[in-house]
Write a structure and sequence with these properties.
The chain is an alpha+beta fold. It is 27% helix and 18% strand. A hairpin with a 3-residue loop joins β1 and β2. The chain is globular, with a radius of gyration of 17 Å. The chain starts with a helix and ends with a helix. 19% of the residues are buried.
Length: 141
């Protein structure tokens, strides 16, 4: 896909600092890191949304993210914790329309926070949770 920066990186047409490559995915450094060591796990196959990928590829992405997580913790870079983050769709914050899993090293006092709206602190009713669960359950394949 010619207008996708991640496809260009995978094809070797745009530069990146690669950590890992195999037949299913690549891992390279994020050019806008939350913290030093912030990496992206990206499938070679172009897909905008996670459900467009087959389950084997999704499982492989998570397996490689786990390995990057472990490598970060032993790399000498500051990493007291790790966030795995995947924004699936523009409304979820996806800025590059190619599936990618962020592996973000975190440490106390790094100044970055995941913020929820005020409604997060009000628990949903049992009835609402049940109705929502049923609507999703009907669509599980």
């Amino acid at each position: 896909m010619s207008d996708c920066i991640f496809c260009e990186i995978i094809a070797g047409l745009s530069p990146a600092n690669f950590i890992y490559q195999d037949g299913f995915c690549v891992v390279f450094m994020d050019i806008h890191p939350v913290n030093p060591g912030h990496a992206l796990v990206v499938p070679r196959q172009h897909a905008v949304l996670l459900p467009e990928l087959d389950t084997a590829t999704v499982g492989h992405l998570l397996k490689i993210a786990q390995q990057v997580d472990n490598a970060l913790r032993h790399s000498g870079l500051r990493s007291e914790g790790v966030n795995l983050f995947l924004a699936d769709g523009r409304s979820a914050g996806q800025d590059v329309m190619h599936v990618h899993l962020h592996v973000i090293p975190r440490f106390d006092g790094d100044g970055h926070h995941l913020r929820f709206s005020p409604s997060y602190h009000t628990p949903a009713s049992t009835s609402e949770l049940g109705q929502n669960a049923e609507m999703i359950r009907k669509q599980m394949k």
